[in-house]
Amino acid sequence: MYPQAGDDVVGRAAIVARVGSGIDRLDATQHLLGNHVVAVDGELARHVCYFHAQHVWRGLPDGELFLSGTRTPSSSVDAW
User: Fold this and answer.
1) DSSP β-ladder status, 28-41 and 65-77
2) Please, how many CA atoms are within 13 Å of residue 64, restricted to the half-sphere of its CB?
3) DSSP label at residue 61
4) From residue 19, how far is each of 42, 53, 67 by CA, in Å?
5) If we measure between CA atoms, which residue out of 12, 80, 70, 71 comes closest to residue 40?
6) What is the predicted pLDDT for the residue at 28?
């Protein structure tokens, strides 16, 4: 599941499609993640970390660099 997308997105292909729809238009992107905490309960894993993201979209009149950062929770069912 990928709750940051606004609703539950389930499965690798669905997550790649959702994330790709937002970053395909960018010229470059970098995500730095740290302070990972993972809690496992049976087949459910919950994950929290902090991230800082930098995005470059060339040719925009108000600037080409976008910065964001947050603390992001996620959860997933074991699918290994």
Assistant:
1) unpaired
2) 8
3) T
4) 28, 13, 17
5) 80
6) 93
